[in-house]
């Protein structure tokens, strides 16, 4: 069984990684004296709440203007997709590709990945835990890179600024986008990957 360490009442300290004998769900590490739980308390509830919050923020993040492009004093507010079109028109195709990946592929993929992980925790049949572990690490790794879109807009606001001729300013959509990214990071942090191994029948050939 994949959870034989838990069955043997053994738990690893998250701070110093020492294996401790768990006398209760909450234990004090015998080496560094850090108090920790056998599993993160309410991991699934927090992960689900943060993931749903991120999904809700995804809607205004992509419908509200992300930036305002000024040309000869005339403002032109644009959403993420409209901003991508502007960058393409300006001949900044690499920037447009980066924004598209950072704005859609990474955040949406991370939200979907979290839902998949939570679904697999509830499954009682045999699953490929090695792939699930890789999916979790990918979701965790992508978190900070989702902020790349915000950094691009900030850099463009500083670089593409020729006074009255052309300038770029961030708009309200960037707030919702930032909240979406932060919520997905909280969701990934709340998720306990060890839950994937609990009550699972593992195929050792996978």
TrEMBL record:
<keyword id="KW-0997">Cell inner membrane</keyword>
<feature type="transmembrane region" description="Helical">
    <location>
        <begin position="84"/>
        <end position="117"/>
    </location>
</feature>
<dbReference type="Pfam" id="PF04403">
    <property type="entry name" value="PqiA"/>
</dbReference>
<dbReference type="InterPro" id="IPR051800">
    <property type="entry name" value="PqiA-PqiB_transport"/>
</dbReference>
<feature type="transmembrane region" description="Helical">
    <location>
        <begin position="138"/>
        <end position="162"/>
    </location>
</feature>
<keyword id="KW-0812">Transmembrane</keyword>
<feature type="transmembrane region" description="Helical">
    <location>
        <begin position="48"/>
        <end position="72"/>
    </location>
</feature>
<keyword id="KW-0472">Membrane</keyword>
<keyword id="KW-1133">Transmembrane helix</keyword>
<protein>
    <submittedName>
        <fullName>Paraquat-inducible protein A</fullName>
    </submittedName>
</protein>
<keyword id="KW-1003">Cell membrane</keyword>
<dbReference type="InterPro" id="IPR007498">
    <property type="entry name" value="PqiA-like"/>
</dbReference>
<feature type="transmembrane region" description="Helical">
    <location>
        <begin position="174"/>
        <end position="191"/>
    </location>
</feature>
